[in-house]
Design goal:
Number of domains: 2
Structural class: alpha+beta
Helix content: 40-55%
Order of helices and strands: HHHHEEEEE
Strand order of the largest sheet: 4-3-2-1-5
Keywords: Membrane, Transmembrane, Transmembrane helix
């Protein structure tokens, strides 16, 4: 969000500098359209490459196109929005776009989480940057030593002395006290072996 706010500030300041003869409101909507086009590209190249991964590319493109088209339509429709009813219609257009974009983001995050869950259930770790745009999740490969027994698991996290991990050999998630356990995290480059010892 901070990246998008910063990018919008740069875009709007630049356009305001060069479009001094343009109405401020028009410049604002042009900035929104430019942000819709550049924002996903910047996020995809920095913190959220998942935006342009194969399963999610269509959603990203659809939301981007929807915002750009709505911003362009707003610029045109404002010329004819001389009555309160027409101004309300333009506002409702944005309400619809925001609602649809929110719904798309929820579906996006849900699909991403489901994909990551299937990956963990098959015994594979989540790669670095396992982002969903809603949650930052992880499932790190680890060798767990419990007394003399040692087994491969995917570390899910810990809290108040309790640890949670997924054990592929049992096909289940286990939560237990960390006392007596030794964890040896496996480097990502060798995590595909799923063996310990």
């Amino acid at each position: 969000m901070s990246a998008l706010v910063g990018l919008f500030a740069v875009i709007h300041a630049t356009l305001s500098w060069f479009l001094q003869e343009t109405a401020p409101v028009t410049t604002l909507w042009i900035s929104v359209a430019a942000l819709a086009g550049l924002g996903p590209v910047v996020l995809g190249a920095t913190t959220a490459p998942i935006l342009f991964a194969a399963p999610f590319r269509t959603t990203t493109a659809g939301v981007t196109a929807g915002v750009i088209v709505t911003a362009a339509a707003t610029i045109v429709l404002r010329r004819y929005a001389g009555t309160p009813e027409r101004k309300r219609a333009v506002a409702l257009l944005w309400v619809a776009v925001i609602a649809l974009s929110y719904g798309a983001s929820v579906r996006f995050a849900t699909a991403r989480m489901a994909g990551l869950a299937r990956q963990v259930a098959s015994g594979r770790p989540i790669p670095p940057a396992g982002l969903t745009l809603t949650f930052d999740v992880h499932a790190d490969p680890v060798c767990v030593r419990d007394g003399t027994a040692e087994f491969f698991a995917l570390y899910l996290g810990e809290s108040d002395g309790w640890i949670a991990f997924y054990q592929p050999s049992l096909g289940s998630t286990i939560r237990r006290a960390k006392d007596g356990l030794r964890l040896a995290f496996i480097p990502p480059a060798t995590s595909s072996t799923r063996t310990c010892g």
